[in-house]
Structures are given as structure tokens and as C-alpha cells.
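Weekly modeling sync, notes
Attendees: S.R. (lead), two postdocs, one rotation student

Agenda item 3: backlog of single-chain predictions. S.R. asked that every request posted to the team notebook include the full sequence so nobody has to chase files. The rotation student volunteered to paste the first one in as an example of the format we agreed on. Action items at the bottom.

Example entry:
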Amino acid sequence: MRRTFRAMLVLVVVLFFGAAEFCSGRNTSFSCIEREREALLKFKLCFHDPSYMLSSWKGSNCCEWKGIGCDKNSGYVILLQLKGSIFDQLLRYSIDDQQPHQLHLIDDVEEVVSSLLKLRYLEHLDLSQNNFNGNLIPPSFGLMKQLRYLNLSSMNFKRRIPGELRNLTRLRVLDLSDEHYGRLKVDDVQWISHLFSLQQLEMSGVNLSHASSNLFQLESIDLAGNQLSGSIPDSIGQLSKLESIYLSGNQFGIRFPEWLLLPKTISVIDLSNVNMSGPLPENIGHMIPVLQALHLTNNLMNGSIPKSLCNSKSLTHLDLSNNMFSGSIPNCWRNDQSFTFIDLSSNNLSDNNLIGRIPPCFGKFPIMVNATQLINAMDLAYWYWTHLMMVVKGRYLEYTGKTLGLECSIDLSSNNLIESIPEELIFLKDLHNLNLSWNHLLGTIPEKIGQMENLESLDFSQNGLSGMIPKSMSNLTKLSHLNLSYNNLLGPIPTGYQLQTLEDPTIYIGNPQLCGAPLLKKCSNDVLPPITSTFKDNNEGALKRMWFYIIVMSGFAIGFWGVVGTLIFVKSWRYAYFQWVDDVKHWILMVITLKVARFKKMFNGNLDD
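Predicted structure, as returned to the notebook:
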């Protein structure tokens, strides 16, 4: 009895401390499977590791090694995350670190896969951006049937993607994209239709001939930068779960596909640089209620910008640049619109044929008024496309990754915009870049432009702006690029603060009435000449001239018809008028006759003398 009591007491104590340890949240230590540890060490020997990515791979517990994840119950390796980093000098920012780190294959690629096959429960494999020295993708990857995530992008693989990948039926994410277009190719993509669980497929840069339509679970399609031609399969419109589609950099030569309006879940459309023509569907804003990003730059699209886009409450990125759009910019976007990027040059409207005035509603986009609203509301770990070209500070810059989401920009350059710059624009206090160059804007620069405190790049060049440069512009302490060239500005250039650092005289070239540093023309001490109505406000002057012409023409019409109409309708006045005309005529003839007779008499008298 006593022995039984002691056994029960020991059991209670063991259970108590076990429960206490479990409830305390401390991680219980467990070791990985020995044969999997040996497989990982064999995997390590296949690579040269100049950046010491695998330096932590030592010791008996491989579950504690960097890049390794184990199942907490069994100890089996289920995750291998060894993504490298390629720093492309063409990019302004790298997605990851500024310094590259890679594994370099020094053994047979089949040995690598052979080692990985011993990780029988591996679900997540990411070897992207490491250097596999131009080898083929081994077909044996298709034997890793437990995989749910596979990323082999940018690994310097070449030639054919093996169809054996069809066996990875549990795969949810497959990334085979490559930054060198055409280095990888697919002869037949029917194998993709066997990946029944696939939700995300990324094959940008891969040479594809056609795409499969039996991928009903797909949420994202990325086929950007391939060598696709012909038409886009209509069956893509049947992908009811599709959220994003990236098809830029191909040669489809199509009109905007109407079937793309069918999936109500789609939020990102990138059909830039695909040789697309024709107008945008008028009902696009009604048919895609959750659309967040529409990227159609570098095409041949025409017609007007659909007003239905005003109904897209979630739309934040709009890029229609380098097309043939015409008409005016819709003045219907509401105060709750969450735009962070507008490119109508290019939520960019440049290089189109847009006309009319800049809508005052552009000054009411809340995200540009207070960008912190965006940062608090959205995850900026990634953005809608991997990179985007923008004209900023006089140069084409490419924004990638996190930096893209932080850029609030409006580019309306190279259009036919007229009238004045709306005063409402000054309320966009978190706007970083504003480009209104190469238009026909008149009037003056808004006096309170200095309130746009986060402005870094400002381009008003090649317009008809007049008047003096507002002194408040010197309050733009973050301004690093300014271009006011080729306008009708006059008077002294403001001094102080940030403008003192902008010493390039070409900023102000083409404004002959400007003076002061950095121009060589000095300002005189004389009082500046009064600003004429033409320079003060061309719009006001044009309006006054218009009213002058209306009054003059109206007065002429009233006077003319007051006289002629009376003669037509009053008979006695008409007789009297014609009698008066006859009397005047006879009087003129008589005067002329007398003058001629007197002249002859004088002339004959001179001859007699």
C-alpha cells in the first residue's frame, strides 16, 4: 500500500512539472533525425559558400541550424529556406540586402537532389537566387511529393523545365521565374494542369508557347516577360479564385480582354507592354469591385478614361502612361479614394492626348494628404508588381519591393492640359513627386505650394505659367529636384532654405524676366513693373477679352438692326431716309461741280497770263 502511494506521488509530481513546463511556453528541445542531419551535411558539401550562409550548420541538432525548420512533434525537417540575394546594379533598391550572398554549386546537381530526397517530409523548399552554374533542372525534383512550396527562381538554370514536376500534386506555390528572359523554356505546359492544389504560379522570364487552362485553384498568374504571342486564352476568365495576373512584356497584340472582368476577386492587373490596342471597357470599375492596381503602360490604347473607375474604392495604383488616350481627366474621384500612385503620363497620364483642366478632386486623395493612413492600414512587405518605372527628379527610376509602396506620385506630363494648376493640390502634403511638365498650363504657381512639405521632386517645365515664383517654395525643405524652365515667370528667384542648394541655372532657363541667383542676370533695385493682366493671369485676361468682344458685337448688332429694322418696317421713315440720301447725293454732286468749275477757271486764267 505504501509502495503504491509512493508511485502515485511520483507520477503526480512528474505530471505537475511537465504541465508547468508546457504552460510556461518554453520550447522543448528535440533533436532532428540523424539520417536527415547526415543528408543536410552532404547537401552542404555540394556548395562553395563564400558568404557563410551555412556557417551555423554544425552540431548535433540540425533543427537549430539557420534555414532549417523541423516538425515540433516528430523532429523531421519540413522546411529548407536558403534564399540567396542578387544585387542587380540596374535596380535602385534591392529586395533584400545591399550585399549579395549566394551558394555556388561545385558538385553534380543530381547529388543535391539526392540529398534532398532523404528529407522525406520536406514541405517547403526555397533555393532561389543561388548559382547552379547553368545546369538543367533535374527531373528528380518531381519525386519530392510532399512539397507544398517550391521556389527555384533566378538560380542560373538553363534550357528545359522538366515535365516530371507534374507529380508534385500537393504543390500550392511554384516559382520558376528567371531574370534572364528566354534562358529557361517549356516545350509543353500541359503538366501544369496536374498540379490540382496550385494557387500561385510564377514563370516570368520563361519562354512559353501556351498556357494550360485547367488550373481552377490558381489565385495568381505571373507570366511576365515571356515570349508569348497570339491571344490570351478566354478560359482564364473561368478562374474564379484569381486575384492577380501579370502578363507584361509579351506580344499579344489584342484588345482589352472582356473576360478579364468576370473574376470578381481580381485585384491586380498588369498588361503593360503587350501591344494592346482599343479602348478600356466603360464598365471596368463596376465589374471589378476589388481592383487595387491597374497597370497598362506602353500600349496602343485609345479612347477616354472610363468614369466607372471612379467607383473603384479600392483602386490605389493607376498607370495608363504611354498610350493614345484622349479626352479629359474624369473629375469624379471621391474624397475616400486611396490613390498612392497616379500616372496619367504614364496614376502616370503623360504621353497621351488628354485635354482639359486638372480636376480639383486631385487635391482630395486622403492617402496623399496623410500617407500615415496608408502605412497603418496596409502591409508594405511587398507591392503589386516587383518593379515600376517612374520619372522622378528628371530621370527614369525603377522602384522595387518595399520602396514602391512608399512613393506617392502624380505624373501628368506630356499631355494637352490647360488652364491653371488647381489650388487644391497644395493639400497633398504627403505627395513626394509631382510632374506636370510639357502641357499648356497657364496662370500662376499656387502661392501656398510651400505647404506640400514632403515634396522631393517638382517639375512644371514647358508650360505657360506666369507671375512670380512664390516665396513659400523655399519652405520645401525636402526638395532635391526642381524644374521651372520654359515658362513666362518673372521677378526675383526666392532665396533661403532649400532653394539655396539648387544651384543649377537650367532650372530656370527659358524665363527671360527672371533674375537673381543662380542666374547671371541681377535684379535691379527698381520697383518691378506691374504685372499685366496677361502675365498676372492669362485665364482672367482671356475671359475679359471674350466679354469685350461679346459687348462690342452685341452693340453693333443692336445698332445695326435698330436702324435697318426701322427702315424695313416703318414706311414713312423709309421714304424720308431715301429722300435724305438723295438730297445728300445732290448736294455732294453740286459741291463737286462748283469745285471743278472753279478749278478750270483758275487753270484757264493762268494759261492766258
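Discussion: group reviewed the output briefly. The first helix runs from residue 2 to 23.
Action items: rotation student to repeat for the remaining queue; S.R. to check formatting next week.
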